[in-house]
Structure formats: C-alpha cells, structure tokens
Amino acid sequence: MRALNGLVRAGLRRAARAGSAALERLSADGWSLVQATIAATAAWVIAGGLVRDHSPFFAPIAAVIALNASGGERGTNAVRMLIGVVIGIVVGELTLVVTGGGYGALAAATGVAMAIAVAVGAARLVIAQAAAGAILTVAFATGHVGLGRLTDALIGAGVALAVSQILFPARVVSRLRRAEAAALAEMVGLLGATGRALEEDEDPSRWTVDRLGALSRPMADLSRARENSHRAVRWSSARWTDPEPLRYEDERIDRLIILGESCLSLARTAASMDTAERRRLAPVVCEMAAVLDVLAGDLGDRAARQRAVDRVLGLVRPFDDDGTDDPVTGAAHLYVRMVATDIMLFAGLEPEGAERALAGEHERTRVAHPPREPWLPWARRGRSSPGGRERHRRPFRRRP
Predict the structure, then answer these.
(1) C-alpha distances in angstroms, 123 versus 68, 107, 156, 217, 245?
(2) In this structure, are residues 39 and 81 in contact, taking their beta carbons and an 8 Å threshold?
C-alpha cells in the first residue's frame, strides 16, 4: 500500500510538472494564437465577400500558415508562402496547356515547381507551397482553380501582413528575453553540474563536454532571435516606437555571450585543480548557478537583478586577493571574478559601476530598472518633450 501511494504521488508530481510546462508554453505563445485566429477569420470574411461562387477555404489557411513563425519572421513567412503559390500555379497552368492533364501532368508539374523553388534558393515553405499549388491546379483542372487559389493566397498573405506588421507587430524585447532565459538556464546546468562534480571530487571536464553542445544551441537561437527582432523592427510599425528597450537588450545579449564564455572557462579550469581547492570552489560555483537561476526567473524584474548583483558580490570578495602561488588555482580564481563581473554587467551595471563595486567603494550598488516594452510596440511615448518626439520619429537602426 505504501509503495502504491508513492507511485501515485510520483505520478501526480509528474502530471503537475507537465501541466505547468503546458501552461507556460500557452502563456508564451497565447497572444500569437489569438492573432492567428483573428487573421483566419478576417481572411475568410474578406475572401467570401470579394469572390463570388467560390469557397475561400485557402484564404484563412494562408493567413495561419503565414503567421506560423516567430515574431520577426511572420512577414517573411507571408511573402514566402505567396511566392510558392505563384510558382505552383504558373507551373501547373503551363503543364496543363502542354500535356492536357493526367497523372503524368501531375508528376511533371509537382517536380518542376519544386525544382524551380530549389533552384532559386527558396526556403522549405516556398518549396512546399509550390508543390501544393501545382498539385491543386492540375488535380482540379477546372480553369479557375489556379486563379481562385492565387486570390485566396493574396488575401491571406495581405491579412497576415496587416496583422503582423501593422496592427500587432512582434514584441521583440519579450522574445529576446525568453531566448536569454533559455541560454541562462543552460549556464545554470553547466555551473550546477560543475559544482556537484567538484564537491564529489569527480572530473568536471566530462560535464563541460556534455554541456558544451547544450549551451551552443540556445546561443545560436539567441543570435537568430536578435537578427529576427531587428528585421521585425525595420519592416513593421514597431520602427516608430522607443528604440531604447531594444538597444538595451542588444547590449545585454552581448554581455550574455561573454558570460557564457566565462562560465565555460571556469568549468574547464576547475577540472585541473587539486582536491582541496576543488572543495573550496565547489560551493561558490553552485551559488553562481543559483544566482543565474534568479536572473533567468524574471529578466524584466529589477529586484531579481539587484539580488543577483548583491549575492555575486558576496561570493567574489574572498577571491579578490588570495595570494596563491599555484597558477592553476590563480587562473580559477580569476575566472570566478570574471564570471561575477559578467553577471553584474548582464544584470545592468555599467563597467565603471561594476569595477567600483568589486573594489568595495560602495556599500550597496543599485541596479537601474530595465526599460519596459509597451504592450503595443507602435504606441509612441515621450510626447511631452520635443526631444522625445524627435527621437520617436526616427526609425531604430542597429548600432555598428
């Protein structure tokens, strides 16, 4: 009976974790789902009103397909889908003229449409839409299916562009912070595994190798998210919003990349230390993982950033002047200070402030509030001052 109760409790815990993860995913992408629903409904209504004697089923499908991408790629997705549809319809109609239809025409149109999309270096979505357009055109072969599908695609893509680029442009800062949190979570795993290995006198280098690939993936996602965010700002109504939140997040991403390199260097160097130094360093590395976990919990919370700075300052001060003669131990202590410095810089301190804090010149170093992104990115702010109005008229341009 006791074993059965244990199994039930374990199952309930797993179900609770799965439910929490599902709710978190819905919370992250819920607004995108609402936008796709709005766009599909609008495309259906518009296509049904413009085109008579036609079931505009593809217009809402096209709108949803176009919006089924991350914030910075939704406009590009709409254009890609439209290009694929045009290629497929043109190839399908030409195939019908040459062959008159049949199974051979279907195979030829599909292959040629995909070959053209591949030859011009198109994305996978374009290739798939080119094939679908050619298949539908040849399969139905009623003379107006191709034009009807093209009309639907134009309406669906137009609605998707209006929703994603004008009415509700991507909240780029929120997406960047989610990517940053994912990268921080991998750093937490790296330092946590390293700290546990140091406590148990194992070789941390094995954990470093295992975590290296895991850390490279969120870093690549972070770089891609940054590029998509700048593209979204350039080609949407978000270009008229306050550029400061995105500029601030750009700087944080640069700091985060350097922080990841420092964490790797610390993990690698700790593997070469002797047993006594490993055990001395183990709780510090574990506490640094806990500090990064605090940051990853809510990157928009100033209080969380402040707690991270305060905790990491307490960790690093015993390593300011350790007087060790062992070069490996000295290098490990140096990397402890580097990780601490990079954490403070990522949390929002300026380099001068972090340097003074490490030198003990201030009893308490205050972290500034991170800029907040408006819910509607195109909503202008700062109208009260001429300087603010002038700043918002200029589109955001990424600094070199």
Answers:
(1) 14, 21, 19, 21, 31
(2) no
In the numeric block, which tokens belong to residue 162? Answer: 């209006």
User: For the segment 192-203, what is each residue's pLDDT rounded down to a tens digit?
Assistant: 888 888 888 776
**How would you label 297-330 residue by residue, b for 16+ Cβ within 10 Å and e otherwise?**
eebeeeebbbbbbbbbbebbeebeeeeeeeeebe
Q: Are 152 and 126 in contact (CB under 8 A)?
A: no
Q: What's the CA gap between 291 and 284, in Å, rounded?
A: 10
> Of 95, 89, 74, which is closest to residue 151 (Cα–Cα)?
89
Q: Using alpha carbons only, how large is the chain's radius of gyration in Å?
A: 27
150: three-class secondary structure by DSSP: helix
The Cα–Cα gap between 160 and 49 comes to: 18
Structural domain range at position 316: 172-358
Tokens at 274, concatenated: 């002797």
Beta carbons of 268 and 215 less than 8 angstroms apart: no
pLDDT at residue number 166 = 83
Same domain, 163 and 176: no
Find all residues with CB under 8 Å of 242, minimum gap 6, and list them: 371, 374, 380, 381, 382, 391, 392
Claim to verify: residue 198 and residue 274 sit in the same structural domain: yes
Whether 26 is covered by a domain: the verdict is no
> Could you tell me if 58 and 78 lie in one domain?
yes
Domain presence at residue 383: no
Which stretches of the chain score pLDDT less than 50? Answer: 381-400
Domains: count for the chain:
2
Q: What is the pLDDT of residue 53?
A: 64
* Rounded distance between C-alpha atoms, residue 350 and residue 344, angstroms: 8
What is the predicted pLDDT for the residue at 3?
A: 75
Helix and strand element counts for the chain (H, E) = 14, 0
Is there a domain that residue 400 lies in?
no
pLDDT score for 258: 92
Boundary residue ending a domain (167, 193, 222): 167
Return the residue matching tokens 């244990």: 6
- Alpha-carbon dihedral sign for residues 392, 177, 125, 148: negative
Contact in structure between 170 and 202 (CB atoms under 8 Å): no
- Two tokens, residue 49: 């009103």
First to last CA, the chain: 67
| pTM for this predicted structure | 0.70
253 and 349 in a common domain? yes
Amino acid (1-letter code) at residue 188: V
